Amino acid sequence: MIVQVFDVVIVGGGAPGRILALRLSGDPSISVALIESANERELCLRDSRFIRDISGCLQRRNFTPASKTHIDAWHDLGNSGWDYDSFARAVHRCQSQYDGLASTRSRTNLTIATETTVHKIHFDRSSNGEIVATGVEAIKRIGGRAIFQARKEVILAAGAIGSPRLLEHSGIGNVELLQQIGIDGIIDNPHVGENLQDHVGTDVLFAAKKDLQTLYSLSSKRDNGLVNTSDYCHHRANLFKQSCLTSSVQLPLPGINSSEGKHDLNSLLRKMATYDMVDQSVPTTPEFATVHELFVRSILTSPADASASLTVRHACTDLDQRDDVGCTCANHTAVTVLLAHPLSRGSTHITGPSIEAPNLTDARCLSHPADVEVLGRHVLAVEQMFKHAELMTQQSKYDKVLFPNMDTARKYVNRTASGSSHYTGTCAMMPREIGGVVDHKLRLFGCPNLRVCDASVMAIGPGVAFKTAIAGVAEMGAAFVKQSLSRKE
């Protein structure tokens, strides 16, 4: 068995873990271990993509800034220091000063352990009886069992599924649930793994006009992918040089500035008031359900805040996997409609004591009726856009009515919508009594030297600015840790 000792141990080589490792190892007096289950090549590829994207916090070459309304909502949950101005400075720091792990290769105080899977966190008690994280236990693909001891802090950056999974395997979570599967509870917090949120969306398809180049030509008989590959290699020309995403926009609730739209909004709000918020959106606490509903209502009633995003793509939808998509033409234009702030919430929990046992994960997308109503209204708006907008009519043919009324849009959403794996919320940053797992400095309630720093801490999921939000959380977390290690708290 290999035993190594560091000041800080970081679990997870995704974007948050890499940012933490880069920032903390910048101080040569702090020894840092970054542990990642993927191999080094995969880690380097991930890092190079992040460097390329983070210069503008890009998602498929789209700049998606975080919403002030959304970030301030985190602050209003009781998280001091998480106001929009502070968060924006953190994102700017990442955009302008992230050089990637390659720049750290000469740092002797940073150890990157790849192909290493962490199984559990080790704990002890301090002289005053406080629970303290002392390190993690892992299995290396080559070398077997290893212990990474932490003199000062352990940081989980394994994502909204991985971080609560590791906490539960280590005895932190709903003690009754853990005892049922043979795990001794160390810290009882029933909110671990709860409040799982995900962006849910659907595609609306329209036949493309004959002269519009789409990705369909890469696989068609008349213009196969090998020919396109050759053209690109020799001339840097054709569709391989462009993104499948051609345009994107974030929009408020359709018609919000018209009298008819305002009447529809009031009708929607009255309907929302009749829903049993707790029953429809469990698991959560009644207090958080109320806060979350008020936040979503503020988004829906604001002409300046987006309730959905629309993304136009050309021939990127697998028609074999869809039923009644409106258009069955392989050469098509698709509009992906993504709900920015769903009220539906689910959970993710381990199913057995072995780290190999799968998680039971269910975001319960569209379980809240308001999500169907909002997404359905945006789907209706997309059809009107393609019917009248000059840019759309230049690219696509509109030859039949897809959604004659709201009822058909609701049915379409229920039949075709799915999640996007933008998971958040499972180790929520908010007061413990309303559903929190970590405090405003990302410290686990009950173990102050164990932090969680990834998408799982976002109690209210971001709009579509997913990468931006993750980068900001990581930068904020690195600042908290450096502050703690320098004894300035």
Which SSEs are present, and which pair or pack?
Elements: E1 2-11, H1 15-24, E2 32-35, H2 40-54, H3 68-76, H4 84-97, E3 110-113, E4 116-125, E5 131-140, E6 144-156, H5 159-169, E7 172-173, H6 175-180, E8 187-188, E9 200-208, E10 219-220, E11 223-224, H7 225-235, E12 245-251, H8 259-274, H9 277-281, H10 286-300, E13 308-314, E14 332-339, E15 347-350, E16 359-362, H11 369-388, H12 390-395, E17 396-397, H13 406-416, E18 418-419, E19 443-444, E20 447-452, H14 466-485
Parallel strand pairs: 1-2, 1-6, 2-3, 6-20, 7-8
Antiparallel strand pairs: 4-5, 5-6, 9-14, 9-17, 9-18, 10-11, 12-13, 13-14, 15-16, 19-20
Helix pairs in contact: 1-14, 4-14, 11-13
Task: Summarize the structure in words.
Helix 1 packs parallel to helix 14 and helix 11 packs across helix 13. Helix 6 links the parallel strand 7 and strand 8. About 5% of the residues have low confidence. This protein has about 500 residues and is an alpha/beta fold. The radius of gyration is 24 Å and the shape is globular. The strands form five sheets. Strands 1, 2, 3, 4, 5, 6, 19 and 20 form an eight-stranded mixed sheet that branches. Strands 9, 12, 13, 14, 17 and 18 form a six-stranded antiparallel sheet that branches. It has a two-stranded parallel sheet with strand order 7-8. It is built from 14 helices and 20 strands.
The major β-sheet equals: 8 strands, mixed
Distance between the ends: 36 Å
Mean pLDDT: 84
Structural class computed from helices and strand pairing: alpha/beta
For CATH, the homologous superfamily of the largest domain is named as: FAD/NAD(P)-binding domain
**Shape from CA axes?**
globular
User: What is the CATH C-level name of the largest domain?
Assistant: Alpha Beta
DSSP, total strands: 20
